[in-house]
């Protein structure tokens, strides 16, 4: 089971260090923006579900200058950092005088959104769904708060993520040092179960490179990405276990660097005007899967 209190504490602690380590997270946001750019959408209200330190916020407002942005996150300290990206004080007042909408911020869990039904036109969620036990509740909540014709666009991590680190730890002890991630096909099925229409799923592997295993782990700590499932190690590793893990990871070294692979899954789907997904005559729903090479 995923411990949400542990997740909140980890991200609160990492809020100040997050941006320095979040290279991959910014890259994924930029790629999602490219996908959003080709979609015909003029939302009145956009929800950034799992906004973190708010990198996407100003970019979403640039894409939809007339929209009301809601920045939503589990960790209150993340929201405080996110607020620094937007006008404050006199600049905020001037923006309001000019008719520009300033972002709202809400702290909560994406599996139990404290928002009214049919209250937003677009839900954007970048690398947040992996912190849910299953996607079903989050997708059900997304469908509930979307208005008919609304869009859900998200990214999350797939099972191949950090496979090098998982392999390096596997022979050292029986503890869960790397979180488990949900397969693209299971995510697509969950969208269908929730009632979304025309789901499209895409996947690509992005590889970060490092000089040492310590740098890999430092980046993970910097973004608050600890193992939060049952079976994680309660105490520190001994020196011999640590050396064994490092030696295992070194087997992946190539061209002088150590890789850290992230399987990034992108998905989008619509809430149909009728409120339910269109299906084939036999009850099946068509889901489009794409794998980048």
Account of the 3D structure:
It is a single chain. With 293 residues, this protein is α/β, with parallel strands linked by helices. Strands 3-2-1-4-5-7-6-8 form an 8-stranded mixed sheet, with helices on both faces. 37% of the residues lie in helices and 22% in strands. It has a single domain (4-159, 182-206, 263-291), classed as Vaccinia Virus protein VP39 (Rossmann fold, 3-Layer(aba) Sandwich), CATH 3.40.50. It has 10 helices and 8 strands.
Question: Which fold does the CATH topology refer to?
Answer: Rossmann fold
Q: How many strands in all?
A: 8
CATH superfamily: Vaccinia Virus protein VP39
Q: Would you list the SSEs in sequence order as H and E?
A: HHEHEHHEEHEHHEHHEE
Report the structural category. alpha/beta
Our measurement of the CA-to-CA distance between the termini, rounded to an integer number of angstroms, reads: 33 Å
Helical run tally: 10
Main pleated sheet:
8 strands, mixed
Strand order of the largest sheet: 3-2-1-4-5-7-6-8
CATH C-level: Alpha Beta
CATH architectural name: 3-Layer(aba) Sandwich
Low-pLDDT parts are: 230-235
Bin the helical content: 25-40%
What value does the Rg take, in angstroms?
Answer: 20 Å
| Portion in strands | 15-25%
Mean pLDDT: 89
**Structural shape:** globular
Supply the number of structural domains: 1
């Amino acid at each position: 089971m995923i411990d949400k209190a542990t997740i909140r504490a980890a991200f609160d602690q990492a809020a100040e260090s997050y941006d320095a380590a979040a290279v991959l997270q910014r890259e994924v946001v930029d790629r999602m923006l490219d996908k959003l750019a080709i979609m015909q959408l003029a939302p009145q209200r956009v929800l950034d579900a799992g906004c973190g330190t708010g990198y996407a916020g100003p970019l979403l407002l640039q894409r939809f200058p007339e929209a009301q942005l809601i920045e939503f996150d589990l960790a209150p300290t993340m929201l405080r950092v996110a607020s620094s990206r937007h006008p404050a004080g006199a600049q905020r007042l001037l923006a309001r005088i000019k008719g520009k909408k300033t972002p709202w911020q809400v702290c909560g869990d994406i599996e139990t959104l404290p928002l009214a039904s049919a209250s937003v036109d677009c839900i954007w969620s970048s690398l947040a769904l992996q912190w849910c036990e299953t996607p079903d509740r989050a997708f059900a909540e997304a469908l509930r708060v979307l208005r008919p014709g609304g869009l859900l666009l998200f990214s999350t991590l797939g099972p191949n993520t950090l496979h090098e680190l998982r392999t390096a730890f596997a022979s050292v002890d029986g503890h869960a040092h790397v979180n488990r991630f949900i397969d693209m096909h299971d995510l697509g099925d969950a969208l269908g179960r929730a009632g979304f229409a025309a789901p499209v799923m895409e996947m690509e592997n992005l590889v970060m490179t490092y000089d040492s295993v310590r740098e890999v782990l430092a980046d993970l700590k910097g973004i608050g990405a600890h193992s939060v499932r049952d079976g994680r190690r309660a105490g520190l590793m001994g020196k011999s276990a640590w050396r064994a893990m490092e030696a295992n990871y070194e087997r992946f070294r190539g061209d002088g660097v150590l890789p850290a692979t992230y399987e990034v899954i992108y998905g989008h789907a619509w809430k149909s005007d009728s409120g339910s997904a269109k299906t084939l005559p036999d009850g099946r729903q068509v889901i489009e899967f794409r794998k980048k090479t």
